[in-house]
């Protein structure tokens, strides 16, 4: 008989598997989901908010249904859904590899690696710009790729895990402010913003709890986060900036145009050492929230 304990055990196993194995290089279910979304977009795209809303809701519903089916397999299904949804370990390992490349003086390799984390043009980034881009991405994706899945897994089990992962993947694919996606991707971006409101703020709370200077974290979040164009990214990026004693934000060049991002935090420009510290902080945040999510799931009511 399935119980809340089996889903809690599965969530713990999936989080542990991500910590040990990280994302598979080939055949990742999220990559296959993304490929299916891309194929359907080529056939169904229209410069319309209505069409984009149906597109996003349809795919999120399909992923949620798959998660509900996975939940019927008990701990095994929960573990598979959690491992599929979590991406924090890969994120931190890439950050460490970027820092290694910069320490070795290999800026081109660092640019190649950071291009897998950010949408901005890596060829325009110097060493400081690479570190800034990587720390910002690490902060944002600590919430998006690790904390948010854990929150949804704790509350709604495998259905929540895979449903959230669909939300975040759709936002990454079509939630841009470009001419093509301004209307079609509008719903995907808004749904992602809503889904990450709580996880982003929970991430900031845990960052402050782990930081040597919690006051600096809260000062940066209260003062700077609201000026960021994203209601969630600004919160976690400001929290990391305050914890690390660095400054993030500034001119950012994307394929769809240039954005002048607000300054987040007080201090120097980030270095490779700061990037390593950010990765270490991200790992600690993930462990704390994973333990809390498993305990919450174990104590909650049985859900499919």
Keywords summarizing the entry:
single chain, two-stranded antiparallel ribbon, 304 residues, mainly alpha, 2 strands
Short structural summary:
The chain has 304 residues and is mainly alpha-helical.
Q: Topology, pairings included?
A:
Layout: H1 4-21, H2 29-44, H3 49-71, H4 75-85, H5 88-103, H6 107-114, H7 127-174, H8 181-184, H9 186-195, H10 197-210, H11 214-224, H12 233-244, E1 248-254, E2 257-264, H13 272-299
Antiparallel strand pairs: 1-2
Helix pairs in contact: 1-4, 1-13, 2-7, 3-4, 3-7, 4-7, 5-6, 5-7, 5-13, 6-7, 7-9, 7-10, 7-12, 7-13, 10-11, 10-12, 10-13, 11-12
> Would you count the extended β strands for me?
2
* Rg: 19 Å
Number of helices: 13
Query: Pairing-aware structural class of the strands and helices?
Result: mainly alpha
Percent strand equals under 5%
Q: Could you give the distance between the termini?
A: 12 Å
**Contiguous uncertain segments of 5+ residues:** none
- Tell me, briefly, the overall form: globular
Integer average pLDDT: 93
Spatial order of strands in the largest sheet: 1-2
Order of helices and strands: HHHHHHHHHHHHEEH
| Sheet of most strands | 2 strands, antiparallel
The tally of domains stands at: 1
Membrane topology: Multi-pass membrane protein
Subcellular location: Cell membrane
InterPro entries: Cobalamin_biosynth_CobD/CbiB (IPR004485)
Family: Belongs to the CobD/CbiB family.
């Amino acid at each position: 008989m399935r119980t809340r304990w089996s889903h809690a055990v599965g969530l713990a196993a999936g989080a542990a598997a991500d910590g040990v194995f990280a994302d598979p290089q080939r055949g990742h279910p999220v990559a296959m989901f993304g490929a299916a979304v891309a194929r359907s977009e080529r056939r169904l795209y229209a410069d319309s908010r209505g069409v984009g809303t149906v597109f996003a809701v349809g795919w999120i519903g399909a992923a949620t249904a798959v998660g509900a089916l996975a939940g019927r397999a008990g701990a095994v299904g929960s573990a598979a859904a959690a491992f599929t949804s979590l991406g924090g370990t890969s994120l931190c390992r890439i950050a460490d590899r970027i820092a290694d490349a910069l320490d070795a003086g290999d800026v081109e390799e660092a640019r190649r690696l950071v291009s897998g984390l950010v949408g901005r043009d890596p060829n325009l980034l110097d060493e400081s710009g690479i570190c800034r881009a990587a720390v910002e991405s690490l902060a944002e994706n600590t919430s998006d790729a690790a904390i948010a899945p854990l929150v949804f897994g704790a509350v709604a089990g495998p259905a929540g895990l895979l449903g959230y992962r669909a939300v975040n993947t759709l936002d990454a694919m079509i939630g841009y402010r470009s001419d093509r996606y301004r209307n079609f991707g509008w719903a995907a971006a808004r749904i992602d913003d809503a889904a990450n409101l709580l996880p982003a703020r929970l991430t900031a709370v845990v960052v402050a709890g782990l930081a040597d200077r919690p006051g600096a974290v809260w000062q940066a979040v209260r003062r700077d986060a609201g000026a960021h164009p994203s209601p969630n990214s600004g919160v976690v990026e400001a929290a990391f900036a305050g914890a690390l004693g660095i400054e993030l934000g500034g001119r950012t060049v994307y394929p769809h145009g240039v954005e002048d991002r607000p300054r987040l935090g007080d201090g120097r420009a980030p270095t490779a050492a700061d990037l390593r510290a950010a990765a270490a902080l991200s790992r600690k945040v993930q462990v704390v929230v994973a333990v809390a999510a498993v305990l919450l799931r174990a104590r909650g009511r049985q859900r499919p």
